[in-house]
Amino acid sequence: MKSYFSTNRVLAWTITGVAVATVFFACKKQVTTDTAPNNQTDNNTLTVTQHETVAASMYADLFDETAKAAVLQGLDKAGARQATPGSTANADAPGCPSLELLNGTGNTWPKEVIVDYGTSCLDRFGVYRSGKINIIFNGPFFNAGATTVIETSTYKRNGIAISGRLAISGVTYDNVKGIQYTTDLTRGKIGLSDSVIIDYISHKTVKQIAGVDPVGALLNPSDDVYSIEGNASITYEKGPLVGVPATFTTVEALIKRWDCQYISKGKLQIEFNKITGVLDYGDGKCDNDATITVGDKTKAIKL
């Protein structure tokens, strides 16, 4: 944590751990048993789950960046001290990114913020970003009735091109219920490589279910636990699986602890090429064990 962080900047930093909860697949899956996929359909099913991993993490990161921008520009709550329109501020490493509030003074909404990462901006977590994201705040970010919309412009994260429209709504944050929010992604597109381009859409709701601090919410996140529900879909625009969509739907709410890098509980249904599979994250232990069931075959996998 850098010394220039105010209390609001501490909140912005802490939210970085919250957005990870929107990721359906915590890490790339590796089949680790002797019952590894024995046909192409099974292999393809595992491939699309891996691609969903990447896609979900990329758009969850946009929530992070938007939350930080809201706090740093004073757009997080009613009455917060707002930046002067036209001014810029550094949100992370010296010199990048720059944040510019384009319009709006006082309690006049909407307000627009441009986050410019330049050609290469390295954050303190080792993530490179480039390009811009344009954010429209229709009200204070932590206001259940407000909607915040993010559009990308030549934006890349660790060299991966990302585009789309991400709407964040229903964001609440208090010392009773903790944080809750919903994200809706449309027109999502990710260039995973020169040979693989996917279209991605999703709808996810995240709710804090444990660890709420009655004194200062989110200031002590180590015991926080989140529940995630929703759905997502992938269509291949380019690659070996063109024309075959894959959908992902929570069967049982996924449980994500702040102090655990893995989703530790819950079930996710995968439908791909007329095959339905269920990914079971386990019984709540913080480990990288899970199972995937496709048809009559169940395979143990490592997260």
UniProtKB/TrEMBL annotation:
Record has Signal as a keyword: yes
Protein name: Lipoprotein
Record key words, sorted: Signal
Residues making up the signal peptide according to the UniProt record: 1-21
